[in-house]
Amino acid sequence: MKKEKLQDLRGFIDLLKEDGDLLVIEEEVDPYLEIAEIHRRVISRGGPALLFTNVKGSDFPVVTNLFGTSNRLELAFGGKPKQFVRDIVNLAETAMPLTAKKIWANRSLVGDCMKLGLKKTKRAPILENCQQPAELCKLPMLTSWHSDGGPFVTLPLVYTEHPDGHGHNLGMYRIQRFDDTTTGIHWQIHKGGGYHYFEAEKQNKPLPVTLYIGGPPALILSAIAPLPEDLPELMLASLVIGDKLKMATDPLGSHDLVANAEFAIKGVVPPHLRRPEGPFGDHYGYNSLQHDYPVFQVSHLYHRNNAIYPATVVGRPRQEDYFIGDYLQEMLSPLFPLVMKGVRELKTFGETGFHCLAAARVTDRYPREAFACGLRILGEGQLSLTKFLIITDGDIDITDFGALWCHVLERVKWDRDLFVFANVSQDTLDYTGPAVNKGSKALMMGLGEEKLRTLSHEFTGTLPAECRKPKVYLPGTLVVEGTSYVENQELGAQLACWDGLGDWPFVLLVDNVEEATCSMQEFLWTFFTRFEPANDIHASATNVRRFHIGLRGPIVIDCRMKPWYTDVLEVDQATKDLVDEKFERIIPKRYR
Fold this sequence. Notes:
By secondary structure, this protein is α+β, with helices and mostly antiparallel strands. The chain contains 18 helices and 29 strands.
């Protein structure tokens, strides 16, 4: 089927219907917990997008799981944006000196660039209805987990402009509804909207905000994309659409409006005002706790006729953000060597919530160039929140973690190739550090063609009395179950010094071996979301030379749950029972 330019949400929904990838559910469902659990069960089975037409307490239908498969992402965005980025990179690398022949060879790219931008229109569906004052409680915002602090907008598109006119930001910052005209706004560190608010607050000014819900799928993709701070997200949306983004003047003032959005909520975030926001079950698979965040004060709300409310469910990987993240990486990957010299390929792992683990294939043409490449990555935008970065110069598929890990483990020199950086910023959602936004990160390198060790596939040693169930999950990687952290905080260090390990290179200490090794997904999630480098990496011996801490194997990483970690997300029994009662009735057998 020929893919049209998707200028709004309903155009994408129509495509999904034609493709047989949309399930319409007409039975009444509750946005409090029930929709989320239905969604989770369907996405776990690779099921279709879901359109709930009878939502308790709201006149608006809800659509979820729009991007829960790679096929739906291709349907929404296709290959055009990826090709455009490749063409831009190729032009940047080959254009100079500029000649008429090179301009002609890139004429299609020039034509595509002419289509980018914003276009004013007087026919704006978003202006069809206006609420003043707004009635946010009539929107079907989801409460996804019983531990959540309230209903949240889970696909929020938050638009702000720099108070001094230095560009705009469109970001996805979670929104908790407090009442009809007030929400929290979760501006994390290293986020563009937060920078705008920081500047406005310094000037003691309120920051105007427009919160979009729904619109062209490109708008959602652009809000999530980890663009450099000064690159405009609305231009990326225009690129993905393949046409200029239609905008309209707000009759009540402030920002122009995306003409084809489903909802546009207008207001301000005043300076110096904070209110508790959260808890919220987040994409790491744990509860993020309640903290004070700025407050969005809503003045008015626009919506289309028969507006459709899009939502997603955030939780333990893999959710929709996993598929969107992979698409964005594929689209933006040609840019990495251009903006970070020496970085040939980069991968962040959605199985770990993205920021917990990244890997890069780099050049190592002179001594320790690979280390310099690692620093470039750790200094680049949101990548600076990466907790564990693996670096190799090998000709290997870094998206295959098993192969990558074994390749690096065969080559890592523990006394010089593992760097731990303490007292640095950490992702707001990662609670493994000593305090919110504080923690450490590690950079581990495995370089060169020559192997330093042969990885064993069988463990024949012994374990301390408090350890059991040794399992070789990957060659050279032993997973061991131990008593709880509360019972013995020092077990990781004790295990690293245990003579029975011999020359075994790497050990992972966990609470439950079977759960940690039942799949690569669970292995990665358990491994990288449950340790903090400065606290939980142990070695049989250490030495300090020229201010570098060198290690001697075995290396043990303690991935047991710690008392200060937040709870793992689990569905409460009442919600399970509620959905069990109707699941077979509303969901066809092929999706169960």
